[in-house]
UniProtKB/TrEMBL annotation:
Biological classification of the source: Bacteria, Bacillati, Bacillota, Bacilli, Bacillales
Native species: Sporosarcina gallistercoris
Xref: SMART domains: MoCF_biosynth
Keyword annotations of the record: Magnesium, Metal-binding, Molybdenum, Molybdenum cofactor biosynthesis, Transferase
Cofactors: Mg(2+)
Protein name (database record): Molybdopterin molybdenumtransferase
Length: 418
């Protein structure tokens, strides 16, 4: 009789994977190439930001004390002694009732401690007049108000995005220390698989998992090595997997992990001597997802069914790969939403439903994205999140509060509504 697989809870499966993560080394790369990588050093303010007191407006810099008593009936006149554009500094200190014309971003001249915008002055032959008293520091962008020298602004292990790049550039990080990326092999198994450009023939289908998994890796910024497709041939499949393990840091296979006559992955793990962390998870889709390790390398055996394959990647491969890359927050972001329609099918396993979330008058709602079985491909394309329905005997009703996992597939909205 066939060996019965014992399903383990999703959280247990994730923690078994995460326990086996071996972090990759760090490397230095140029700032231009660092988008999407994970910082292997904190960003520490190498100097104050701004690095000097500066003007936030185009106007005049003067001594606030000289504006005392100014009003509409008693306009205070100032003499302009020079001009400072951004990138320049004032030549001489500002004395009583003197001012510099100053542009946004320019350094505040010595002696001045306030700025008035051009629009709030009346220009005269010598300079301008103002109609209100100014406080010391009014309209001054102070040195260090954004970041103080020595302050840790971003922790190591954080994803580099456009804003991070701005900060790195601010401090002159021409080179950035980031974690190495794993090279991940992708192999789709299945005698039924055709290439994307092939015409359909009876009994065959096009390989959609391979391109999908590569796209999921691309979203994480992880480079891949493609091993194409193999037929369900034990020896041929074993050879490709052996080669892939030599050439990559981790391998993702799709298909062949269940109990069918041509599901060879379990036998291959045994042949290779890989340690199987689990081969049955109390989830749907993806219950047969298998993860094994061999000499510190992960073998992610994702299910052949497209929705199961997608979910298995996001739940197990994603956090493991991000954690290998040094990320301290490798899990999918989540939020709460109201179910937009009944989901009545109770299940002893946790369900991950491909769904669409949106903001409505009653807050965030989520609706299943159509045909939602493990073999569905259309709902993966339509969905922008996964609804998580914990195992249980009752179904779920419209309006129930549920958890959503965000999969980074948000589209824009048709109209600006705010
Ligand atoms: N007796 C049992 N049968 C099945 C069980 C079980 O527990 N007992 N589990 C079912 C579940 S759950 C799933 S999910 C599937 C998993 O199957 P495998 O991971 O072994 O994958 P395959 O058999 O190779 O293929 C399944 C399905 O997916 C299609 N497929 C495969 N690769 C691709 C690809 N690259 N692109 C698109 N579609 C692909 C394949 O043609 C099959 O239709 O097993 C159940 N059976
Ligand atoms: O492994 Mo499954 O649970 O139908 O996708
Ligand atoms: Mg199978």
């Amino acid at each position: 009789m066939m060996e019965m697989r014992k399903p383990i809870p999703v959280a247990e499966a994730i923690s078994r994977v995460m326990e086996h993560v071996q972090p990759l080394r760090a490397e230095s790369i140029s700032l231009e190439r660092s988008m999407g990588r994970i910082l292997a050093e904190p960003i520490v303010a190498r100097h104050s930001v701004p690095p000097f007191d500066r003007s936030p407006y185009d106007g005049f810099a003067f001594r606030a004390e000289d504006s005392e008593g100014a009003s509409g009936d008693n306009r205070v006149p100032f003499t302009v002694i020079g001009e400072i554009g951004a990138g320049y500094v004032g030549e001489q200190p500002v004395g009583p009732y003197e001012a510099y014309r100053i542009m946004t971003g320019a350094s505040i001249p010595e002696g001045a401690d306030a700025v008035v915008m051009f629009e709030q002055t009346v220009e005269t032959s010598e300079g301008f007049t103002i109609r209100k008293p100014f406080k010391t520091g009014e309209n001054i962008s102070y040195k260090g108000e954004d970041a103080a020298e020595g302050e840790t602004l971003i922790e190591s292990g954080t994803l580099i995005h456009a804003g991070t790049i701005a900060l790195l550039a601010t401090f002159g990080y021409a080179e950035v220390k980031v974690y190495r990326q794993p090279v991940v092999g992708v192999l789709s198994t299945g005698t039924e698989l055709l290439d994307v450009s092939d015409a359909l023939i009876p009994g065959k289908i096009r390989n959609s998992n391979g391109p999908m998994v590569k796209a999921q890796l691309a979203r994480l910024g992880v480079p891949f090595q493609s091993y194409g497709t193999t037929s369900d041939d034990l020896d041929a499949c074993t050879e490709v997997i052996k080669r892939a393990l030599e050439e990559t840091d981790a391998l993702i296979t799709t298909g062949g992990v269940s109990v069918g006559d041509y599901d060879h992955l379990p036998a291959i793990y045994e042949r290779l001597g890989a340690k199987v962390l689990f081969n049955k998870v109390a989830m749907r889709p993806g219950s047969v997802t298998t993860v094994a390790v061999l000499r510190d390398k992960f073998l992610f055996g994702l299910s052949g069914n497209p929705s199961a394959c997608f979910t298995g990647f996001e739940l197990f491969a994603r956090p493991a790969l991000l954690s290998m890359m040094g990320s301290t927050s490798p899990y999918l972001p989540h939020l709460k939403a109201r179910l937009a329609e009944d989901f009545t099918k109770p299940n002893p396993f946790t369900r991950f439903v491909r769904a669409v979330w949106q903001m409505t008058e009653i807050g965030v709602t989520a609706a299943p994205a159509g045909f939602n079985k493990s073999n569905a491909v259309s709902s993966i394309a339509r969905g922008n999140c996964l609804i998580v329905l914990p195992s249980g005997t009752r179904g779920y009703s419209k309006g129930d509060e549920v958890d959503l996992l965000l999969i980074g597939a948000e589209q824009g909205v048709e109209e600006w509504v705010l």
